[in-house]
Specification:
alpha/beta; Rossmann fold; eight-stranded mixed sheet; elongated
């Protein structure tokens, strides 16, 4: 009896799956995604570490694009499951990454905040369908699907963050006024009457809301003005670097255009100390006295541990805008401002949670070395009253000696150390903010009476 031999034919999607090949496609998927993640990490933390948001975001997308780009040729050459669909996310991410790199201003637009989440959701939806059709491997349910879920959650969080930013803007009434200082507007709010006028300069990433305890206390005795630097709070963003000289010039223009006469008692907390020092160096006739609340020193880099700390934080601040878009900052800041008065706490939390504030933080930190160098231009305040109030708790080694150097700028100065106060508590905790207010009012009294500064 003759034997009949049949030859089986299969379509591409019906090819018999060899066990070794099934295992190999899972390894290739995993390796490609890991390669993309590592490439993004190297670019974001290395080559573009601490760069502006557009550069960090663009370089991250180029790294991820590399991973998806590897999946298509490797799966085609090494397995019987060619993942041609991977070319779509690779091309989409590469194109978007290049656009971000060459078009820096796009990340600051409201359209970008609202536009990227739906675009990401459409792409992930298509990738889910395509991978389900072409990928027969454990890597699809155990690797790709969880990854897609994380991306979907991020996109939803991004939409919510954009909504909250708009809602927060309408939830609080702006006090004071917006004043054009040349190309952008700054917010300033002045309360109280009498002179000399006290001008409050907040610390790193602070807004005018950070003075919620101090401004009302000082306003009972004289006029006091709090304002928002460019890019934060109610103020517009500005083009170009915001170093100490630019900030001092903006403040001088702001006070002039707002009709606030000098000379002023300048109050600087933390980084704000650098800016009031630069103001005094540029406009000495506009300075009646000064209060430095645990101020950053122009010689900060002389501290042994500071250069490494600065560099690490510089790179970290480059990641903040992207993380803020996902709502991470809103979660992180829920308790940071808990000790401020209720309204100030809510406003500070709302402002601190925005991508605009994160970009401002990054930009401010990047200019810190320049701001310190510029502040060194002030070598003396002569006999103008100067009160240096230092927090003793958690201070770095050498911090106290730098504070002594600041006190030596004037022949009419007081240096007081609050041993149980922290750097932040001098403004955001009622108990220690009261001590800061006392220091400010002692300088006001010395200016009014043309008398030596006394210890409150």
């Amino acid at each position: 009896m003759a034997t009949t031999t049949r030859t089986a034919t299969f379509t591409e999607n019906e090819l018999p799956v060899r066990p070794s090949w099934t295992h190999r496609i899972g390894v290739i998927v995993t390796g490609s995604l890991v390669a993309g993640l590592l490439a993004a990490a190297v670019l974001v933390l290395g080559l573009f570490g601490g760069a502006p948001e557009n550069a960090v975001g663009g370089s991250a997308l180029l790294g991820f694009a590399l991973g998806w780009g590897l999946l298509w040729p490797l799966s085609t050459r090494r397995t019987d499951q060619a993942q041609r669909w991977a070319a779509v996310p690779a091309a989409a991410m590469a194109l978007t990454g290049v656009l971000l790199l060459v078009w820096p201003g796009v990340v600051a637009s409201a359209a970008f905040g609202w536009g990227w989440p739906p675009a990401v959701l459409v792409l992930v939806g298509w990738m889910s369908v395509a991978s389900r059709r072409q990928l027969r491997s454990w890597s699809r349910p155990w690797l790709l699907y969880p990854l897609f879920a994380v991306v979907v959650v991020s996109a939803v969080a991004g939409t919510y963050e954009s909504y909250r930013e708009v809602a927060d803007r309408s939830a609080y009434a702006m006090t004071g006024q917006l004043v054009d200082v040349g190309g952008h507007k700054l917010h300033i709010s002045c309360t109280g009457t009498g002179g000399p006028t006290v001008v409050l300069e907040g610390g790193f990433a602070a807004t005018s809301a950070t003075w919620g305890w101090i401004a009302p206390a000082v306003a009972q005795h004289t006029q006091v003005c709090a304002y928002d630097r460019a890019g934060r709070g109610w103020s517009d963003s500005a083009n170009g670097p915001q170093d100490g000289v630019v900030i001092a010039t903006d403040l001088h223009t702001l006070l002039d255009h707002a009709g606030v006469p000098g000379p002023y008692v300048l109050v600087g907390h933390s980084f704000g100390g650098l800016y009031v020092l630069s103001f005094a160096a540029r406009y000495p006739n506009q300075v009646a006295g000064m209060v430095l609340l645990d101020s950053t020193s122009p010689h900060q880099f002389s501290l042994s541990a500071y250069p490494a700390t600065y560099e690490a934080f510089r790179r970290a601040t480059g990641l903040l805008p992207a993380l803020t878009r996902l709502g991470v900052a809103r979660l992180a800041f829920t308790s940071q401002f808990a000790n401020l008065p209720a309204l100030s706490r809510e406003e500070e939390t709302a402002f601190a949670s925005t991508p605009a504030m994160a970009r401002s933080q990054r930009d401010e930190w990047a200019e810190a070395p320049t701001a310190m160098e510029q502040a060194r231009a002030l070598t003396t305040l002569s006999a103008h009253p100067l009160f240096v109030l230092t927090a003793g708790k958690g201070a770095q080694d050498g911090w106290a000696s730098l504070q002594d150097q600041l006190a030596a700028l004037s022949t009419n100065s007081v240096h007081r150390v609050l041993t149980d106060a922290t750097h932040e508590s001098l403004t955001n905790t009622q108990r220690f903010a009261a001590k800061s207010s006392e220091a400010i009012l002692s300088v006001v009294a010395a200016v009014r009476n043309a008398s030596p500064l006394t210890h409150p």
